[in-house]
Every structure is written in C-alpha cells, then in structure tokens.
Amino acid sequence: MTSAQELLQQYGPREAMEYDVVIVGGGPAGLSAAIRLKQLAVQSGKEVGVCVLEKGS
Ligand SMILES: Cc1cc2nc3c(=O)[nH]c(=O)nc-3n(C[C@H](O)[C@H](O)[C@H](O)COP(=O)(O)OP(=O)(O)OC[C@H]3O[C@@H](n4cnc5c(N)ncnc54)[C@H](O)[C@@H]3O)c2cc1C
Q1: Which of 19, 26, 27, 45 could form an S-S bond across to 54 if both were Cys, CB 3.0 to 4.6 Å?
Q2: Does 33 sit in the ligand 1 pocket, CB within 6 Å?
C-alpha cells in the first residue's frame, strides 16, 4: 500500500480549500441548513464559507 508520504512525493501537496462550515448531505436538511446559515451571515454582515458535500450524482 502507498503511504501518505509516498503519495506526497509522487503528486505533490493536494489543493485545499478552507470553509467555516462543512455540511455532509445535500438533502432538504443539509440544503436548508446551508441556506439558513448564509441568510444569518448576511443579516449580521459577516462572511461565512459554507460547503455542502453530496455523495449522490
Ligand atoms: C420513498 C419516499 C417517499 C417520500 N415522499 C415524501 C413526500 O411525498 N413528502 C415529504 O415531505 N417527504 C417524503 N419523504 C420523506 C423525505 O424524503 C425525507 O423526510 C427527507 O428527504 C429527509 O431529509 P434529510 O435531508 O434529513 O435526508 P435525505 O433527504 O436522506 O438527505 C441526506 C443526503 O445526504 C447524502 N449523504 C448521505 N451520506 C453521505 C456521505 N457520507 N457523504 C455525502 N453525502 C451523503 C445523501 O445522498 C442524501 O442526499 C419520502 C421518503 C421516501 C423514502
């Protein structure tokens, strides 16, 4: 099995993006939570990075 160190040497560091909130699942619960968070952020004049991860196509 290839170790993390070997993968790093072969392909270099992976690209990474930072978020304040990561929501797993893009069903009604996940999407409404993401929308509500962004609405609250706008209301309070703050920037919130929200990422929704959905396993389905
Ligand atoms: C056959 C059927 C018919 C229904 N009909 C109705 C209806 O007519 N009206 C109604 O109001 N409700 C209906 N419901 C109920 C409704 O579908 C659920 O109440 C609602 O979808 C629940 O939403 P949720 O966001 O909690 O979960 P889900 O809708 O299940 O969303 C969860 C999401 O997370 C994703 N996920 C799971 N694990 C991972 C992972 N590890 N990484 C990334 N993503 C992941 C899934 O792919 C899914 O998209 C029905 C349900 C079924 C099964």
Answers
A1: 26
A2: no
